[in-house]
Amino acid sequence: MSDEPKAKKKKGGGMKMILLIVIAMVIGGAGAAGGLYAAGFFSPKDEGPKEDPNKPVLVLVGESAEEIAKAHAVPHGEGAAAAHGAHGKGVDLPAPANPAAYQATYFQLQTPFTSNMIDTDAFAQISVAVSTYYDLRVIDAIKTHEMAIRSQVLMMLAQQPEETLSTPEGKRTLQGKIKVIINDILKQKTGYGGVDNVYFTNFVIQ
Predict the structure, then answer these.
(1) Residue 136 belongs to a domain
(2) What are the subcellular locations of this protein (predicted)?
(3) How far apart are CA 70 and CA 7, in angstroms?
(4) Quick one: 111 exposed, middle or buried, by C-beta within 10 A (0-12, 13-18, 19+)?
(5) In this structure, are residues 131 and 104 in contact, taking their beta carbons and an 8 Å threshold?
(6) pLDDT cut 90: percent of the chain above it
(7) Whose CA, among 29, 51, 52, 188, lies 20 to 30 Å from 201?
């Protein structure tokens, strides 16, 4: 008789221990599951940033810049709106590491730029061409936004002193400024730049 209460007490203590272990496992499991959920373990896998369909692509030697542009065409306005919305002021397209492997496309702006220069009665008249290693969407964007490009280039040209533009270094600096203007307008309007170089096909100061 004296051993029976002890046996019941031992059995009850064992059940409590098992119950505590089960509760601890449940709590621990819930905590672990919560941690995994917070970390995104149970969420759909992130596929990473998707390629912008409006982004011009490099054209390999032997390829057609026009055909590449057609192959990547998106409904009019959609790609540009998405690119502009995603990138704000837009992004520069990187120059290829090995230019010899890619096809350059050239485009001549048809009308020369004519402007008086600062602090002089002389005026400059320059004809400009551009090149890009990207598909024809870059050239198409230049054609579409040529009015904005012309306005900015003419305002910049009017601020140039005659003695600066009369030197080779001054002309090279002017090339760089025009390239920046064109790419900045393309980035603002389409989301991407893409002009690799600017060339003078005629340059007259008189």
Answers:
(1) yes
(2) Cell inner membrane; Cell membrane
(3) 87
(4) exposed
(5) yes
(6) 56
(7) 188
